[in-house]
Model the fold of this input.
Amino acid sequence: MLNLFSTALPLLGSYLYSQKENDQAQQALQTRQNQYNQELTKLNNLFNRSYYSNMLDRSDVRSLLGNLREQMMETTENLKNQASISGATPESITATQKAQNQAYGNAVSQIAGYATSWKENALQNYLSARGALEEFYQPVKSNYRNNILGQTFYNFNSLKNLFN
Done:
């Protein structure tokens, strides 16, 4: 009977200590899981903002198209002034305006074409950042699982030895 107590008492202490370690590991894992979720939310928001945004709404694109429209208006105004002096026909002014509108349309089409590569880059950046995030937090999860499994097997083997 004394042998049973001398074996059971350290086992009980070991079990209580392992429970404390498990609780601490669980708390650390929960903290890291919360950090992971916050960073993942930030990453997803950044991706959604860049991937699903309208390329034509970007400030640099709006500035570029605004400058192009201003140049077109100046060119048209200069053309009208020269036409009144030189006696050019309204058809020539209309033809120039048509060419300018086509150039503007081509610029918008090119920008829309760049949007495809922009979205591909945004997707690749997201996937890389997501992989790095997973890689950073994976060891914490693995260590927790390994500690829990190790403690479980240790406790099981200790109990098994006690009853043998």
